[in-house]
Amino acid sequence: MKPLPILKFLILFLTSIWLYSCQADKAKSPPNIVFILADDLGWADVGYQGHPLHETPYLDQLAKEGLVLNRFYPTAANCAPSRAGMLTGMYGPRHHVYLPQGYAREGNVENMRWKVPTFGEDSTYQTFQVNINHVDPAAISLAEMLEEAGYVTARLGKWHIGDDNQGFHYNSSAGILGEYSNKGGKEERYYNDTTVARKLTDAALDIMEKYKDSPFFIYLSHWEVHTPMAAREDRVNFYREKIEDRDLQDFDPVYAAEVEQLDKSVGRVMKKLEELGIEDNTLLIFTSDNGGLMRLTNNYPLRAGKGTFYEGGIRVPAVARWPKVIKPGSSSEFPVSGVDLMPTFSEIAGVPPPSEQPVDGISILPLFKGEPLPERPIYFHFPLYLEGQGDERVLPIYGSQEGHWRAVPSSVVIQDDWKLIHYYEYDSYELFNLKDDLSETKDIFEQEEEQASILRDSLWQWVDKTHAPVPKIPNKAFQSLRPK
């Protein structure tokens, strides 16, 4: 054989080995992760749940192609604490974010049985630590963990947990990369910007295009459907006519149009993944930060809504799609918490979870693979007060029948079908079986003594373990019998 053909043979042989190696490395590459978060979207607000007004064809398609997590609980009943929990893998008593703006609302001090950090009150009310929309910069975020596995990371949209951007390579509040509004303890809001969903999605697609050959983590955090609401006039008119035609007077046309904006964003992401040929190697998750606001949407069959610790406040829509891993059209009734994202992404990416902080969740990767997970409890803790308006006043002032609060100091544990709420405000418990009573209409604490005892012990052990702040100092300004 002549030298030249031998050389060609060697070149072809070595090239084939190199190409095979590249393909093997690509096959071993961890999946991309796209995490899309809605703001205040209720569990019942999506088409695949049978909503009579809202049109969500892309979310419905996502549900058909993926796994519906029918019991997803994003760690809290309000946006800031739920985001803090999902981004750090820690429950509230670890990151100390309990409410947007941090303190119990001012003006209600005479209705509070206990002293807790409260707007407009003196230092004697600062009885324990709270963080005002602020996560300690020392906390390790999902972005910082995934960076260790070689991920390019981007957070786009609403942040709401402090000035520090927690290690994301790209940041944007309104769609222009490098522009973000969380500075100096303040955050500009884009709730009423009718174009912001499109611009944020544009930025996400640009990053996907640029890094299609590298693992990326995109946290696309929309401003919809939080108030003040705004949407394109033609789509608002479309839903207004639909409401009139179908006599759906209990629904809001602007809210419906904002839900549609979210859905279109999801659809554009799905289409881009397909165009780039990377959808099979991308985990796409859609969910919401808390339940729907009661005065804007109907969370039925769930009870109450945003700000409460009934199911309407803490159970949200959630779908995960990961072709060739997740079985299309599947669903799960296993309770999943927002703190599970960190250990799940950790296992998927092949990096250990942070050792610098407790990680409270578990990996739900087996759930994605259709494998069972053992029962475990998930928890909530709320040491403050949150006033309600109108029908939101689901809890009374202590010592009266007068409804006033959406939430009072309380702790919650959910395990399997059972849910136990302890109210520090009333020195009482409520127990519900969510399988038999999804709407939480019947408190069975007195009837199910054994189950109540098991959950109560679990809850108190967790409160002690996490050093959760429990209100203990009576509020002298409280008036149990207020003059009419």
Describe this structure in words.
Helix 2 (57-65) packs across helix 8 (253-275), helix 6 (196-210) packs parallel to helix 8 (253-275) and helix 7 crosses helix 8. The strands form 5 sheets. This protein has an 8-stranded mixed beta sheet. The chain has 484 residues and is of the alpha/beta class. Mean pLDDT is 93; it is low at 17-27. It folds into 2 domains: 29-97 and 133-375, Alkaline Phosphatase, subunit A, CATH 3.40.720; 380-466, Arylsulfatase, C-terminal domain (2-Layer Sandwich). The protein contains 12 helices and 19 strands. Strand 15 (395-396) and strand 16 form a beta hairpin. 29% of the residues lie in helices and 16% in strands. The longest helix is centred in the N-terminal third of the chain and has 26 residues, at 3-28.
